[in-house]
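Let's sit down with a protein and look at its sequence and fold side by side. Once you have written the record down, we can walk along the chain together.
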Amino acid sequence: WLPIVRAAAVKPLLAEMKRDLAALNIKHDVFFSEASLTSGKKDQVKAAIEALRAKGLIYEGRLPRPKGHDDDEWEDRQQLLFRSTDFGDDVDRALTKSDGSYTYFASDVAYHYDKLERGFDHYRNVFGADHLGYIPRIKAAVAALSDGKADFQILVCQLVKVLRAGEPVLMSKRAGTFVTLRDVVDEVGSDPVRFMMLMRKNDAPLDFDLARVVEQTKDNPVFYVQYAHARAASVFRNAKEVFPGLDKMSKAVR
């Protein structure tokens, strides 16, 4: 039943994500499905593993018990491992689970292998701050697959704290009380959301105050920029009326 439910759920959920992105005037040329790595004529995960094996970077071995891991859940067993420690990682990484299926990391390796095979010049990943620990293994995989030649960077984005009039908006998955990106866009508009996201560096924390970004005061950077734009546009309109033949791109009005 799971494949049936998954197939029925993926399409509408992806459509909803695309609508949310469109509301912010964001367009992705390609949406890549993890399932496509193993559902086509070629098993891309297997191909990526074989590419690493050809470089002598795959072996069967055992991993040490993870720190703080519950003894009842941890299983000491032979695993298919990638020598990620050769590329700066703190431990080699498993590519298969106990039931023989691929790990999430194996799929990530295959995804980057596919991108390398497509011949891109620059590779950029965007990670949330809660995935910092995942960075070394991904960098190790890309370095191994590309022989260290790929121009690869991982950009880390801090999480956004949503406020209302200075007070945190409390969210809970269990209680079903959380604010989605679409909720924010519907409440304050797309321009304030885009502006606030771009005003800071991606790795800087962001407090997004739903009340402040719609205030018409100089303390609101969104309004301040919109006001400045409106004044500049007014200058151009008046200049056109007073000087009909004036080129608005001339030095006189720059």
In short: Residues 65 and 72 are 12 Å apart (CA to CA).
